[in-house]
Amino acid sequence: MTKLKLIGQNAKKATLEVANLTIEKRNTVLVAMAQALKDNWQTINTANQADLAAATELSGSMRNRLTLDQATIEGIAESLAAVSDLKDPLAGPYENWQHPTGFKIVKKTVPLGVVAMVYEARPNVTVDAAALTLKSGNAVILRGGKEAIHSNQALAEVLRQVLVEQGLNPDIIQLIQDTSHDSVNELLHMRDYIDVLIPRGSAKFIDFVVANATVPVIETGAGNTHIFVDESAVQNQAIDVIVNAKTQKPAVCNAAEKLLVHEKIAAEFLPKIVQALTNAGVELRGDTATRAISPSVKEASAADWDTEYNDLIMAIKVVKDTDEAISWINEHTTHHSETILSEDADHVAQFMNMVDAAVVYQNVSSRFTDGFEFGFGAEIGISTQKLHARGPMGLPALTTIKYEVFGDGQTRH
Amino acid sequence: MTKLKLIGQNAKKATLEVANLTIEKRNTVLVAMAQALKDNWQTINTANQADLAAATELSGSMRNRLTLDQATIEGIAESLAAVSDLKDPLAGPYENWQHPTGFKIVKKTVPLGVVAMVYEARPNVTVDAAALTLKSGNAVILRGGKEAIHSNQALAEVLRQVLVEQGLNPDIIQLIQDTSHDSVNELLHMRDYIDVLIPRGSAKFIDFVVANATVPVIETGAGNTHIFVDESAVQNQAIDVIVNAKTQKPAVCNAAEKLLVHEKIAAEFLPKIVQALTNAGVELRGDTATRAISPSVKEASAADWDTEYNDLIMAIKVVKDTDEAISWINEHTTHHSETILSEDADHVAQFMNMVDAAVVYQNVSSRFTDGFEFGFGAEIGISTQKLHARGPMGLPALTTIKYEVFGDGQTRH
Fold it and tell me: Which residue, A237, B48, B123, B333, has most beta carbons within 10 Å?
């Protein structure tokens, strides 16, 4: 048996224990874990220093996301403690009904079992994922990136120690130490042990996982998100929303990447929005019609329209009407978040109805696509697929159902 | 563009039309389709004769499932018409709430989009799948087995003709004419066009699909189902349930395949159940303990414990207690339907809680795992996975959600 299969087997064994913890016990453990992270911040920080020392090639923003100083660790601990306040995703009441022959069917909510998370640099995912899977009664297998391996080891060790102190099996939370590509590949095929695998990272990485996994996967996070400015848009409001969606946090999946402008307002609106985005430090690329009106905009290549920049870059295109905006978006969308800025009820209804995305906005910044903003209290990722979960995933996405049937000898004829 | 990609593209184009039909229109179309099948029974029967003439190698029961005489076609038409009476899976009311900044979030139920069904001999699946996907607002791509190709073509032609007569795009329902393995292989990778693929057929076929698909798949139907007879079981009742679960329709996935008997009652119970199953024509295979008590039982091989016979064969094993029964089942289950026959509330609770299957029964024949028996009015398959849908899948399994957000310029800070 390989090392990874042993981890899988240990996780499977731990599922029954964690699935049967009372909500009081699960919450007690979460609070104790938060305290332990605060108490051990120096150990974690020391491990993090080793990662930072090795990460000489990381860019500034990536380096920033990798850093665990005392304040960051306390923030992570507080997020973890907050999970204890969330509603128990396993609590009833459950639907139940009777078959004509008299047996009773109960549709229960149960944990998925073993959740595997594969993610890149950010060590806070280690704690977030452990907290949310524990709260929902699952065992978790964590496979973080090599850049954060020492930090992840220190964090996982603190969490596992709390499990032991609480009289629980530490294998409810396991971290894979092997950060080679081989470990991901093996994980993707461990159908006997993994009930769902959630990848988090670049679009390229998620595509690789989806193309290669035989375990069930929930796709997350790729966001080539568009904003369509209809002729009826309130233009000052549109400028605020566009600048916010593009620049408030450009590295994340719900940031806007593309702007489509109705041709009837293009001559009036484009110079204003180009000015506003340029002032905000955004590099602009556009189609011919855009550049005819705003010559400062660079020429967009064909590849631009399918690229998620995750950076202060935006591509602009002029479209004939709502129909063309919708077809264009459905051709290029990653099905994450799409926006119409419009006061025309018919155009809005058409856009809402026809655009194929998890979240469709009218006159709101797409930066709100987020489990916390949606009121779910937590987020394990943002699903861009249609099966099981779509959009921001809270605790219910980590559960499934089970039918329990109680009878007294019924047979079928 | 390949022929199959064109089918995919046509299906994608048809999704918006079918998603936006009123429930009245969807039901009108279903009723018209039922009538058209009855009116055209001779054309369908003639096509079916061609399949039957070519199917010289099919076994009696398979041949039977392939046959479409007038009565069978009328039965299929009536099932189709019955779908028009089912509740609209897209109907609200939808959950909705307000963000603190004032925008409104509506969680809508929407169709999946393009559903692909890949199935083996039974032509009735062509009509069932078309009816259920249409009712739930989806476009469907059907890929049946080569044994039924003429029957499937005739059935699909009748259904598509009704779509045309009703003023609709016939590509809401498309049948792939190419029954080669290549067509399945290509389908499994058409991520741009297929929102979910549901395979129906042998366990081997479903494993192949799961191992190779990059489109989202719902696993269905493999059923290595167990019955555990606890020491407290009412033995006469147990005999009825076991004989029913094994013999009432042995070729289907919810038929029982394995029997586990508590060692404390083995000496008393085994001779009775062996007699009853033998009388019902079941070939029995057993472990050493079983054969020591009932020598007429053949020796089971290691492979038996993981084999779904789909036939009048059953393997029997003596176990020490509920714990051993549960571990054994969790080791060998296909997560479909598992049964305990017991009057002991603690053992039942333990079994319900710990056995990892879609449906867990106390004192009921597993033959009831079925969308109609569960009161769903229809069934597109039985999911043995945990994501999206588990157990019998009714119309809601063919839907997903979409968040529609309505605001007046909200930005995130």
Answer: B123
B265-300 pLDDT, tens per residue?
Answer: 999 999 999 999 999 999 999 999 999 999 999 999
Q: CB under 8 Å to A64, separation ≥6 — which residues?
A: none
Tokens 């989202």 appear where?
A: B216
Size of interface A-B (CB pairs under 8 A): 180
Which of B244, B386, B390, B401 would you mutate first to test chain A, the one with the most A CBs within 10 A? B386
Length of chain B: 413
Minimal CA separation from B372 to chain A, in Å? 10
Which residue has tokens 């064969």? Answer: B313
Q: How far is CA A79 from CA A33, A75, A377, B31, in A?
A: 11, 6, 10, 54
B251 backbone φψ class: left, alpha, beta (φ>0; ψ -120 to 50) = alpha
- Contact check, Cβ <8 Å, B103/A368: yes
Distances (CA, A) of A64 to A48, A55, A59, A123, A283: 12, 11, 8, 11, 23
**What is the C-alpha separation between B117 and B171, in angstroms, rounded?**
15
Cross-chain residue pair B367–A403, CB shorter than 8 Å: no
Residue B121 has pLDDT above 80, yes or no: no
Q: How would residue B55 be classed by pLDDT, with cut points 50, 70 and 90?
A: confident
State phi, psi for A262 to the nearest 5 degrees.
-65, 135
Alpha-carbon distance B232 to nearest alpha carbon in chain A (angstroms): 13
Mean pLDDT to the nearest integer, A228-242? 98
Give residue-wise pLDDT tens across range A133-151: 999 999 999 999 999 999 9
Q: What interface predicted TM-score (ipTM) does this complex get?
A: 0.94
Report CA A311 to chain centroid distance, whole Å. Answer: 18
Q: Do B103 and A386 touch (CB under 8 A)?
A: no
Interchain proximity A112–B386, CB inside 8 Å: yes
Q: What number of other Cβ atoms are within 10 A of residue A122's Cβ?
A: 19
Q: Do B363 and A411 touch (CB under 8 A)?
A: no
- B325-354 exposure pattern, b = at least 16 Cβ within 10 A, e = fewer: bbebbbeebbbbbbbbbbeeeebbebbbbb
pLDDT level of residue B412 (50, 70, 90 thresholds): very high
**B216 vs A contacts (CB less than 8 Å):** 385-387
What is the tens place of the pLDDT at every residue in A56-115? Answer: 887 777 788 899 999 999 999 999 999 999 999 999 899 999 999 999 999 999 999 999
Q: Do A407 and B361 touch (CB under 8 A)?
A: yes
